[in-house]
Amino acid sequence: MTDNTLSSRQKQALQTREKIYESAEELFIENDFESVTVDQIVKKAGVAKGSFYVHFASKDEVIVLLINDYVEKVDTDYKSFLDSLAEDMPADEKFLALVEKIAEVLTENIGKENMRLLYRVQLEKKLNVSSVISYDRDLYKMFLQVIEEDFESLAPHSSLSAENVARQFVTVYRGLVFDWCVRTRELDLKTEALDLYEMLLKGLNE
Amino acid sequence: MTDNTLSSRQKQALQTREKIYESAEELFIENDFESVTVDQIVKKAGVAKGSFYVHFASKDEVIVLLINDYVEKVDTDYKSFLDSLAEDMPADEKFLALVEKIAEVLTENIGKENMRLLYRVQLEKKLNVSSVISYDRDLYKMFLQVIEEDFESLAPHSSLSAENVARQFVTVYRGLVFDWCVRTRELDLKTEALDLYEMLLKGLNE
Amino acid sequence: MTDNTLSSRQKQALQTREKIYESAEELFIENDFESVTVDQIVKKAGVAKGSFYVHFASKDEVIVLLINDYVEKVDTDYKSFLDSLAEDMPADEKFLALVEKIAEVLTENIGKENMRLLYRVQLEKKLNVSSVISYDRDLYKMFLQVIEEDFESLAPHSSLSAENVARQFVTVYRGLVFDWCVRTRELDLKTEALDLYEMLLKGLNE
Amino acid sequence: MTDNTLSSRQKQALQTREKIYESAEELFIENDFESVTVDQIVKKAGVAKGSFYVHFASKDEVIVLLINDYVEKVDTDYKSFLDSLAEDMPADEKFLALVEKIAEVLTENIGKENMRLLYRVQLEKKLNVSSVISYDRDLYKMFLQVIEEDFESLAPHSSLSAENVARQFVTVYRGLVFDWCVRTRELDLKTEALDLYEMLLKGLNE
DNA sequence: CATGAATGAGCCTTCATTCAT
DNA sequence: TATGAATGAAGGCTCATTCAT
Hints:
4 copies of one chain form a homotetramer. In chain A, about 30% of the residues are buried. With about 210 residues, the first copy, chain A, is mainly alpha-helical. Chain A folds into 2 domains: about 1-55, Homeodomain-like (Arc Repressor Mutant, subunit A, Orthogonal Bundle), CATH 1.10.10; about 60-205, Tetracycline Repressor, domain 2, CATH 1.10.357. Helix content of chain A is about 75%, strand content about 0%. The first copy, chain A, is elongated. Chains in contact: A-B, C-D. The interface of A and B includes residues 173 and 200 of A.
């Protein structure tokens, strides 16, 4: 297996790359992309400046990679959860379970700082990170999937389409996360989310 | 200076200050705070670089002033509208009218770019702009005021408090605006907002 | 005359600009364009690095300006001399006088180092300095003018056109200057030039 | 090592060396010495960066070796041709034949780009390439050899020495080549050279 | 010999701020 | 007040060279 095994030099190199990547990550979470310097990154990583450019083409590349990684991680976690739910669970319960799960993942796995990073990216114009766009589409699809499974029982009298509802639910979720990111005093995302979506589901059902 | 009339010298100075301020405003709307330079500002204003520092202590000062102004303006517009509504209007109609008005003001008066500016500020850590915090409080107060006026009819069976509901409604509003700012394809804020809050009010009323 | 007089500040600024320009000039003569650094230039000029960019847009701009200046200076000197020659002087004497004058100007006014700079520019691809091209055209024109004035007596039997001859004489002149620039041991440009062109004129006349 | 056969290891090494050397050559022809990087060279050669320093002490060493090779190659070509000419050919015809041959070799064997490389080297100070100096001496010697063979018939009345004439003829040749290198529009070196030297020989003979 | 990760000095340029006029 | 030349600390990035594997 000469291909699959990494030589100690390759391992070393990968470690250096990781050190740089992680240092960058920590710094970007706390600060603007622009205000973080390559000097800071390499100092934190304990490597020479040149090493940064051995492993990455530019500062921007690291930013984009970072964001893509984040988005991917968020997505994967949600999807696997959704698949694990009992099929015969009522749609509204399923939906609330998903909402609850999202809150948990955000709070415990991703963290407030990382999400702030993600939201900041979307409000800045410079970086055109494809993954961030797909991220929203995926969240929308998950919501839509649950809603469509039993739209009749969820919204018996509604004039809105399932797509419409899904989109609005995504919007609400964004408001919740934005608030959560911005608030300095602690805010229990899960409780807030459940209260809000419960209200929405009721309104929808009416 | 015993009178409040300005000498021509003072008038001139005020004009210079305004020119700089407005140039800065236009540039900050279109670009990151960091990427806008003092050079750009004074060039657009048609004054010398030194003049900038005659009127402002630093670039950051201008940014903070700008944000404070924005927040104040947004607030004022909403409040005066709320006062103009008929007192005997039902609470839910009043609320939806306010929601509609907010959408109008945002779309027509403030503009998407300006709102993005405002939201960006909140996701960045550097600037500690007190006004932005108060801004949310004011929006919250308006919502609360309408809700409290007739909480009984709005939420006859709800276990949530009026404060709780008001807070959540603010959150939803934030989600809507965030989405509106971020979406590239046009999104009709007013329609979306009315649909969403109608659903919420129904859910609350149940 | 408020326009025409320079304030002491403007004079100061101009002096700084000159200091930088001249420092750059001296350094470029002795070294490659690429190997001369802005740091070297400002250190030699005794100003801060930023001052360089107050007066010049980039390092390349200075190089282009420098070359243009050189070419212009060379041209002007020759032309005014040519105009000063007696009209009834025989064509071959006139030509030799011009050749002699060129040698004098190059030796005494321009200097070997500067000419080397000029020739180097032409062998490098990067810089597209319009003036250098026009420079050759002008030298050619001067030669052509003298030759055409009395082509019959200069080349009674030649099958070559006056244009052809002028071009070749320019070529020879280039060879002379190139040699002069490259040789380390002193070479008397004037004597060499006169000997060579005398030979050429004789050959042409035959 | 008692024999001159190379082990396969040594052959491999020599090949690597050649690959690097040739890649460097191609790059230096098209670009400034300074702007060509070791990275570019090894990438083009398809070897690792370290291999470059196994075979060469520095980038500068490669440049010097390259230039020496060029000069040597140019020389050899001329010399062998000169030896092949009929002994009883008249001196002026012999000289023109040599001139023609030089033009041919330059145009067809060496190429404009390579010659520009060679001329550029001479106008730069950094590199003190001994061979370049010897190169001129050799060209001079060839010219001198032809001229001296029958100086009486070539320059019956001239006050100049054979050495003097040879030197001037080299100078003219340089002018021709310089022009040829610099001109963008095509210029037929051979025709130009023959015309010019014919003129010179006539003038010399007068 | 071959490799390529690691190094760090150095490059050009930007920019907020200062200050003499 | 108004000016704009002057400053110098960073900033992102390049690249010849070294060296452990």
